[in-house]
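hi! just following up on the protien thing from before. the input was this:
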Amino acid sequence: MKLISQATLIKKLTVKQQYIHLSSNPICDQGSDERFIDECELREISQLLAWGYNVGGRPNGFWFAKGGRWLEFTTRITSNTFKPCCYLYDVNIYGKASEIMHIKTWDDFMSFDWKCPDYWLNYDYFDYAFFDRNNERWIYLSRRMPPPDKDVLSKDESIKSALIKNKIIYNDPFAAVQNPNYTELMVKFGIPEPRVKQMLFELEKLTANKTGGGRQKVDIGQVNTYYPKSSLSQAAAVYGIKRMIANQIYLGYEPKACAKFIKKYEDIFWIIEKIKHKRWDAFARNYSGIIFHTYQNEANEYLWFDSLDIASGCIWRPEGVVNMKLYAVKVGRDSWNQVLRKKHHQ
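and the predicted 3d structure came back as:
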């Protein structure tokens, strides 16, 4: 062991640019050369009704980041809700490149977002905090009912179906926005209440004319024919409205009427779009993990992405693709014991 300061450790990790994992509890002992993470450990992480979701929007699993990013971030945290992270691990990611999705650019993000399904929470059941980037302030919602539990599930239906049937989540933002807690949220984001009520009045007529067929997938080129020009200035907002139009056409709303309605109230529906959550269960059918190589870009407008805090990655189905070694142990407020290992010579 070698005693070093946290500042020195951050510099070393920044130069090294190796993936690291920070933990509040020891995962492998100091004498272990390496340790593979297994599936059962990931299942112990608390989830939303065991559906594979974090209510904050991030996927659940084993998290890691390059260099000293995590340490730099934790030094800025003053909230008592975060446990101190005292164990730092050197992480190696194995497996085929196709098993892990890499998000490096805004184009990568849009491609991922277009393919991965969404859902919206019923905030009657959850305490939630939103950061309004336009006004640089926090917005809070307090739950009105006890949190749901697994009793809503029956043996003959999927968890997703049970959550939607009991209106704990919504897969249709038009259904979500009719909940009074969404009106409260829109007003807190600065939308005048009369405008929200007028939107809801017009939504009733649009919903009444819903075809009910649904499942008509459209690409962004097709959406452009229904939504040729936007009054929104942000690239993320313009994309987000197009993504929502595509989602609603897929759910069975008449394309031209739906696009016209969303465009008329795009200030409201851009807020609805950016507070959505991703269906990580659907994404996980084809991937073992995802790595976000950058954090500061247009994707930060989406609250689930903003909750990542830093550029980082997550593995939820390890199956031998993750192993790690203990790198350092925190022994003081600003000091760590670095594990020294003998170099192997061939």
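The chain has two domains: 2-102+312-338, 119-278.
The first strand starts at residue 2 and ends at 5.
cheers
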